[in-house]
Amino acid sequence: MAVRQRVVVIGAGYGGLRAVEHLSVERDLEILLIDANAYHYLQTEVYGYIAGRFDLHDVALDIRHWSYGFKHRNVTFILDRVTSMDSRTKRIHTLEGEYSYDYAIVATGARTNFFSFIEGLRAHSFGVKKLPQAYNFRATFEKLLYEKLDTTHERCDIAQNIVIGGAGLSGVEIAAEMGDVILKHTKSIGAGAQNIRIVLIDAAPTILPGMSRYVIERTQERLEALGIEVMRETFIERVDATHIYCKGKAPLPYVFMIFTGGITASTVELSQACEHNRIGQYSADETLRIAPDVFAIGDCVELHDTKGTLLAPTAQIAEKSAHYVAQSIERLRKGKTLVPFDASIDGVFVALGGNYAVGELWGAIRVKGVVAYMLKKFITKSYYWGLKLRLNTGYKKRSK
Question: I want to staple 302 with a disulfide (CB 3.0 to 4.6 A). Which of 82, 119, 281, 324 is the partner?
Fold first, then answer.
């Protein structure tokens, strides 16, 4: 019996799972998926989880059961943390052991970049790139709402600011969802809820930098309707336990802050030198290789289309790069030449609280309101139920 070739995928985010799915159809491949967490985190749904609209099972799924759900049973999940890779010996080192590979895919994603030049930012703000951070932020938000409901609490009638640093996609969606929760539930929570103010701060001259004028303008209208204050061209210089200090402005008091203003890549140490960009992403070649037989996908690598245009680090692009690399590995196994990576953003949807969203597809189709929200939910639910079906299959297999 022929020995299976082994592909090791490091990271169980959007790109990593999609790469495993595409590769799993090849019966003569053994696929190892390694991650330090036992769950897959649906970060695109974090806005609803933080605001209390979604539950934990809506944003996290067990990877071990998911890995049991493959037809050919050629996928194995390993709960461990990768420490380094040696491309000369083709071995991956972890905290618990080491694994050989024929091909490897690094899909380690990114984490929040708490800029060191902003004093106190890391110590006094939350990120949302990791599930524990989102969980802690949700608990803090719910505690604040409870205090507004509890009229005996000393802070129930005090005006309090929730500050979000960064008006990109994540920041805007979180601000809108929290604003919608406060607006809708004032009757049940009590008049004290009206004293909670959502403040969105960004150094850029516009919200959602890089997106179309249509999406930006419709989003701005929605934020205004939700009573969210947007501070553009505002530079945060320092944060302490009670105030945020912005250049040229009075100190802003706050009860808690979330920061979504930047990312830094989570990478694996390689034996072979590899260049990185200013936010730590790998600088791969046109075929997304960072070492012989080692590919990088998703947020951990700087991605461009064939025209050289930089592609935003989104779940959509992570999945496209995963599909490309899976195809590339099959081409290499068949002795074929690789073609350069090429991808584009098909569209974007911005969830803006409740059943409202703004979206644009292929630069031509523009929608807003409930229609846009339903389209966005169809896309995210299709992804979720695809994972859920495989997870349920794996759970039944493991239970037998």
Answer: 281
- Look at residue 399 and tell me whether its pLDDT is greater than 80: no
Q: Which residues contact 322 (CB under 8 A, 6 or more apart)?
A: 14, 15, 16, 17, 18, 19, 22, 105, 107, 297, 298
Q: How many residues does the chain have?
A: 400
| Arithmetic mean of pLDDT, 236-248 | 96
Tell the residue number behind the tokens 């068949």, with chain if given.
334
The answer to whether 282 touches 296, Cβ cutoff 8 Å, is yes
Inter-residue long-range contacts of 206-210, CB under 8 Å, 24+ positions, other chains counted: 206/167, 206/232, 207/167, 207/172, 207/232, 208/167, 208/168, 208/169, 208/172, 208/350, 209/167, 209/168, 210/312
pLDDT at 210 over 60: yes
Contact in structure between 320 and 18 (CB atoms under 8 Å):
no
Instruction: Give the pTM.
Output: 0.92
Instruction: Tell me the C-alpha distance between 243 and 245, whole Å.
Output: 6
- Per-residue pLDDT reduced to its tens digit, 363-384: 889 999 999 999 999 999 999 8
DSSP 126: B
Going by the DSSP 8-state scheme, the letter that residue 106 receives in this structure is: E
Ordered by where they begin, the domains of the chain are 5-112+263-345+379-399 (3.50.50.100), 121-259 (3.50.50.60)
